[in-house]
Every structure is written in C-alpha cells, then in structure tokens.
C-alpha cells in the first residue's frame, strides 16, 4: 500500500469537517480513520475546535467531543487544494 503524505491526512480530515455544517463527533472522525493525535494536531494548529457536548444515548447522558473546522482550517484546505491543482502536469 502506498504511504500517504502527512498533509494528505490533514487535508482528508479538514475536508470531512468542512463537509459537515455542524462538525463531526470524535467517534465519526475515528470511524473515518482520523486518529486522536491528528485531531489534537488540528486543534493545536488552530484549524479546528473541539467542544464537549452532552447527548442522550438511550437513557444515559454521555459527553462527546464535537470537532468543527475554523476559518483558518478552511483557508488551509483551500490552499492545499490549490497546491494540488498547480502540481498537475
């Protein structure tokens, strides 16, 4: 299997967040192959935010993290897409 460039993981995670108006829960991102370390990196870089949210799971209230893309994340995603476009032969 070809090894992906680290930027492609960031691009994929940001694209997933950008496609969801309300962001994604940590569980959804994990299901799509985004690791906790990658989520932390996005938040620390200011490209995403993570907010705790309480949801009902049956009769229980649980706390989940909702991750949303920031304006800086949208810019980074656009720049990444533009750089990929410019590299085409």
What would a concise description of this structure say?
Helix content is 49%, strand content 25%.
3D structure, described in words:
The protein is α+β, with helices and mostly antiparallel strands and 89 residues long. The protein has a single domain (6-84), classed as Winged helix-like DNA-binding domain superfamily/Winged helix DNA-binding domain (Arc Repressor Mutant, subunit A). Helix content is 49%, strand content 25%. It contains 4 helices and 3 strands. It has helices at 6-18, 26-31, 36-44, 71-86, and strands at 24-25, 48-57, 60-69. The protein has a 3-stranded antiparallel sheet with strand order 1-3-2. β2 and β3 form a beta hairpin. α1 (6-18) packs across α4 (71-86). The longest helix is centred in the last third of the chain and has 16 residues, at 71-86. The model is unreliable at 1-6 (pLDDT under 50).
């Amino acid at each position: 299997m070809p090894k992906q460039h680290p930027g492609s993981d960031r691009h994929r995670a940001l694209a997933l967040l950008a496609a969801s108006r309300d962001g994604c829960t940590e569980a959804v991102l994990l299901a799509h192959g985004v690791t906790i370390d990658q989520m932390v990196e996005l938040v620390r870089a200011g490209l995403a935010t993570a907010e705790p949210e309480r949801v009902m799971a049956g009769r229980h209230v649980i706390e989940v993290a909702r991750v949303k893309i920031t304006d800086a994340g949208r810019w980074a995603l656009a720049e990444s897409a533009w750089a990929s476009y410019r590299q085409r032969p």
